[in-house]
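Note to self: the last two entries modelled the partners one at a time, which told us nothing about the interface. This time every component goes in together.
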Amino acid sequence: MSVETEQSIAITRLPAGLGGLLPALTLIGLFFVVPVLALLLRSVTDPAPGLQNYAALLGDGTYARVFFNTFLVAFVVTVVTVLVAFPVAWMLAIMPPALASILFGIIILSMWTNLLTRTYAWMVLLQRTGVINRALMAIGIIDQPLPLINNLTGVTIGMVYIMLPFMILPLVGTLRAIDPMTLRAAALCGASPLAAFRRILLPLSLPGIAAGGLMVFVMSLGYFVTPALLGGTSNMMLAEMIAQMIQSLLNWGLGSAAAFILLVVTMALYALQLRLVGSKRAAGGA
Amino acid sequence: MLLDYDRLGWLKVVLLTFTACVAAFLLLPVVFIVLLSFGSSRWLAFPPPGWTLKWYQELFADPSWIEAALTSARIATMTAVLAVVIGLLASFALVRGQFRGREILRGLLLTPMVLPVVVFAIAIYAFFLRLGLGGTTGGFVIAHTVLALPFAIIPIATALEGFDKSIEDAAIVCGASPLQAKLRITLPWIRIGIFSAAIFSFLASWDEVVVAIFMASPTLQTLPVKIWGSLRSDLTPVIAAASSLLVGLTLALMVATALLRRKLQT
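The predicted structure of the combined assembly is written out below.
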């Protein structure tokens, strides 16, 4: 049997439809899986085989601070995002269609606007002499400019701004799926609005809050641009540290090891999210 | 009651006020940057002492901005075409294929969306250094297509799931070849999905910063890299002018999308 017919038999034996996946799998395999695996390999071989890179990362107080700070920022951003997003999603789910489409337009516009543009705007807005400080001083709330940038406050404002749409939009879906009759029933049974909120609305929207919150947390952990521009040197986050190790220090071993830790944490949280909501919704599909 | 807009009572006032504040918060940087680009103060004072077009003149007088924008547009267009074609083939397989491990493969193809982009950036940077693809248009397009693929697959696969395959089968029974049936029946049917995929892939590449920062060379840099460089050196109002043009582009894309969707749906 010639090589050619063997090949054609192999192709016809492919399960129905699998052939269409070949270009995508080639692309992802060759230019995603292989480079990432090569990087991880580098973390245990560069400069010499062994786990010294991980030992250095986990043993050094400076790096420990970066890890702690990364989790702190991601946590604060997630909590603030959830608190701000919930009432907005609630209103979006029930407000008249005309009003809702205006609000959707604003959310999509902010989401689609270039990331650097939005971060740049916050850099200018939050400066010592920026609009926000001046406005607060003009009203007389403060008499010294507040330090709003190059610190946790700056990163939080910028990141919450970026993450809000990712929390609001999925949450609207969850809230719309709740049957209003359950709340009317609660009212008929004598529940006060507060009790109905606490015992019915909140528990029923909890899966959406958990899924969206987890997504915001995961995205925040690995974020680079906004924390690098709005944060200070004393509260550097992991992604920026990795970039620095590679770009300016050319320390591939340490950089790869830090990247591997970020990857493992992210993937573990993503797996948790998959279990929570199922693969399609976790990936943002409808 | 709580989910009944007309019966919320006083709570409605509180919630609507809060929502309006958040909407203003979301609009603030976008509006601010556009106003700032017309302000005459080099120090980005607001409100500006006067209005001017000089930052736009400076922007258009500098060939490196134009070149960066053209590079970005070229790379994003190629990325969108590639991601839609590959994503289309993959979506058919994912939605219609009957094979084991389908969910795992779907997860694998969507992973670039959840993996922190900085990890992918340094991985592909190292990889391309060895292959000699660093700082090339081809390298940019490949890396951006990897990142854009999930954004192409999700809308196309969603549209395909909503398509009744028996219509395609009917065309085949009536004498169309399987390919003809797909091209003339199925593709027009899922065009909104394909259209969304193209827009999302284009934007994924056009807005991408992190991979581009690592991969850019002195001779080849995208617009985000150019902006990034300017942001780190000085906050010149020229960035505001460039950013305002980007806001304009975003608005144009949104309006075009809305109009086209309406046209396609009727």
